[in-house]
């Protein structure tokens, strides 16, 4: 069994056992905290698809995150509590938003792409601030969690295992996607866009598809966060939220399957520890980030050699392969 597979099995076993053992040590609070990490791990992994595998520095993914959360919140105010409706709707709305903004943004490159994704996200952010009927800048409360057949999401334990199952399933699907021909082509566009175009690969469509998938998964993460907090606000869409997710990917390991999840875990745990230690917690966190950048340029997942099953030779060979 490979190192990454052993690590995966051990990590999964610990995460499954954690909520059962936490009450024995008076750590019930941390069940909710770890569940929040799962949600951000899902969001960071979705961003990693376009940032790490596609080489696209998108600074507006928080808009899709918030759109998913608001879709659940708005449907709840209209009396639609079913998760079977609200959660797919959140993915659909965020995916459609990603498709429309990506169709324009992906026609630009470099710093222009960064700025236009930021501009779209801020436009959506200010749009939701102006929606007074949905709380405006103050946000809106959800009085009940979404309803799923046979599951009580108000139960911390049930919701914890559901979010964990969704995260594991999403990582499995991301792995399959990256190892498929589509994922190899996406990485090929990251390595050499001109060569992929000259070989006849539809670079724009490949990137737009990845961008849309990423946006839809961000919407699902937003829907889960809305149920986790029972509250949504425009701050979820602010550019600082996008920047936080980018930092999580960079710290965890850009372009590595577990990079986003590991980055979310490290960043949120460090934030929690340092916040309890000092009110000036941003400074030591910044120093720790510098240490990671200098000594683990491929992120923590790269440092401990937690790699996805992608064969780099396949990517390199793709550029030489005729379509």
What secondary-structure arrangement, pairings included, does this model have?
Elements lengths: L2 H19 L7 H25 L8 H16 L5 H23 L4 H20 L10 E2 L14 H24 L1 H11 L1 H6 L4 H27 L1 E2 L6 H14 L6 H19 L4 H14 L3 H5 L8 H7 L5
Antiparallel strand pairs: 1-2
Any overview of this molecule?
- It is a single chain.
- Helix 2 (29-53) packs antiparallel against helix 9, helix 6 crosses helix 7 and helix 10 crosses helix 11 (259-277).
- This protein has helices at 3-21, 29-53, 62-77, 83-105, 110-129, 156-179, 181-191, 193-198, 203-229, 239-252, 259-277, 282-295, 299-303, 312-318, and strands at 140-141, 231-232.
- The longest helix has 27 residues, at 203-229.
- The chain has a two-stranded antiparallel sheet.
- The protein is built from 14 helices and 2 strands; from the N terminus they run H-H-H-H-H-E-H-H-H-H-E-H-H-H-H-H.
